[in-house]
Design a protein that fits this description.
38% of the residues lie in helices and 21% in strands. The strands form 2 sheets. Strands 3-2-1-4-5-8-9-10 form an 8-stranded mixed beta sheet.
Length: 224
């Protein structure tokens, strides 16, 4: 299934990386920003970077207009802007499938987790958006690799959520990124562990000057 995907906070590294890979999978992508011009500029730069490769459309808009145009919304803002962004878009996001990729992290001589009253950023999103279908995913994919379409991915995307159909849609979307396998990581309350792995990976990658991701070993093959 082809989606129109809004990337809220899509001008940052993770948003631009996911936009690149979603476009390569044939989806229409709208880069959301507080300033429409910035979203338009990033969309143009990403389109140029894809060159002659076959891809879906990339465009830019304000966050609100991006949400209005999309059937699936991906939240990629820094954690410090997470609550304010979702509160501002709550009505526009009603009834939408919302994928939260946000990691509560701060940097003080390395990455440090931020305590979240709800338990995780994804759980916070679900609390703030009671009429949206909230799923957690795409936390552990390195932005540097996502941004370069010549680099292969070899990673799992851990998907959390309470809505089985919404998780199925997000798993299918994840596996349209070449080299990615989706893994059902359980209910929303497990999002805190997925987000914590990202904090750990940031530290590991900094020490080893690497762009490592996550692979879950030993899972049984899936039925056709």
């Amino acid at each position: 299934m082809t989606h129109t995907i809004a990337l809220i906070g899509g001008t940052g590294p993770e948003g631009r990386g996911l936009a690149t890979r979603f476009a390569l999978a044939g989806h229409g992508v709208v880069i959301g920003s507080r300033e429409a011009g910035r979203g338009v500029a990033v969309a143009a730069a990403l389109t140029a970077g894809l060159g002659a490769r076959t891809h879906g459309t990339l465009s830019g808009a304000t966050n609100a207009d991006a949400v209005a145009a999309a059937d699936l919304v991906v939240i990629t803002v820094p954690y410090e802007g997470h609550r304010d962004t979702l509160e501002a878009l709550r009505e526009a996001l009603a009834g939408k499938l919302v994928v939260d990729t946000v990691v509560p992290v701060r940097f003080d001589r390395g990455p440090r987790p931020v305590e979240v009253a709800e338990g995780s950023a994804t759980e916070q999103a679900a609390a703030l958006l009671p009429t949206s279908r909230v799923v957690g995913a795409f936390h552990n994919l390195p932005a540097e690799v996502l941004l370069d379409p010549t680099l292969p991915l070899d990673a799992d995307v851990l998907v959390t959520g309470a809505d089985a159909e919404a998780k199925r849609v997000v798993c299918e979307l994840a596996e349209q990124i070449a080299g990615v396998r989706a893994v059902d990581a359980g209910p929303l309350r497990f999002s805190r562990f997925v987000e914590g792995i990202t904090v750990l990976l940031i530290g590991i990658n900094a020490r080893y000057q690497a762009h490592s991701g996550v692979r879950i070993q030993g899972l049984p093959p899936r039925a056709p």
